[in-house]
Each structure stands twice: as C-alpha cells, then as structure tokens.
Amino acid sequence: MHRIALLYKKLRNLILYILIGCFAASIDFVVFTMLSKYVGMYYLAANCISVLVGIATSFALNRTYNFKVKDKTVKRFSIFLAVGLLGMLLSNLILWVGIDKMGGDELIVKLASIFLVALFQFLLNKYVTFRVKFNQA
To answer: Per-residue pLDDT for 66 more than 80?
Structure first.
C-alpha cells in the first residue's frame, strides 16, 4: 500500500489533470457537437468556440483543485490560454487533415484530436503555466 501512495503522490498532478481534462474535453465535445451538428456551424468555427469553452473550464479547475496555484492569475491564464490556442491550432490541423483530406467522420476525428492535444498541453501547463516558482518577467 505504501508503494501505491508514493506512486500516487508522484502522479497526482497527471491523474487530476487527466480527470479535469476529461471533464473539460467532454464539455468541449458537447459544445462542438451542438454547434456543428445541430446549429450547422462550419466544423472549424465550432471547434474554435468549443475549445475556448474547454480552456476556460480546464484553467479554473486545474488552478483550484490540481496545481493549487492562485497567484498571478492573469499572467497564468494568459499562458494557459496561449497553450490552449496552440492546442486549438493543432486540433484544427488534425480536424482538417482527418476530415477534408482523409474523409473521416467529424466526431471521431474530433475525439482523436482531443487525446492527441491533451498530452502536449499537460506538459506545457505543468512545466510552464502552473510551476510553483513563477518568474516575475
């Protein structure tokens, strides 16, 4: 049992990031689905809106419950948003290639993009956005 506790302590941020990420990704996916399938919005526009909703949700939850870092909120959110926007660009690229170039289903390609972008964003957010010693610059 002691090993499990040690392993959890080492992996705590990743585990919580995944749980929060799943919740935020679910919101992203629901918003994307509503906008693209029910409103009829172009899938890349729907993706941009849904990703922004997911970014805001993820930041609030990670800041409060995962990394528990509450200083310099505007600066941290700006970096988190920049990481999220990079992820959105990567997601849009995956969607464009998967849908327009490969003829994939919008919802399946969207799900794949969420998983691929999540690891990229975790690493940037853990080591840049939410690091404990945050530079003044």
So the answer is: yes
Beta carbons of 70 and 63 less than 8 angstroms apart: yes
Which of 118, 57, 66 has its CA nearest to residue 87?
Answer: 118
Long-range contacts of the stretch 115-119 (C-beta < 8 A, 24+): 116/90, 117/87, 117/90, 117/91, 118/18, 118/21, 118/25
Neighbouring C-beta atoms of residue 100, cutoff 10 Å: 12
Secondary structure element (H or E) that encloses residue 73, with its range: helix 73-95
- Residues 17-41: pLDDT tens digits? 889 989 998 999 999 999 999 999 9
Under 8 Å CB-to-CB from 48, ≥6 apart: which residues? 88, 92
Query: What pLDDT digit, counting tens, does each position of 102-132 carry?
Result: 999 999 998 889 888 887 887 887 787 777 6
The C-alpha atoms of residue 102 and residue 38 are separated, in whole angstroms, by 23
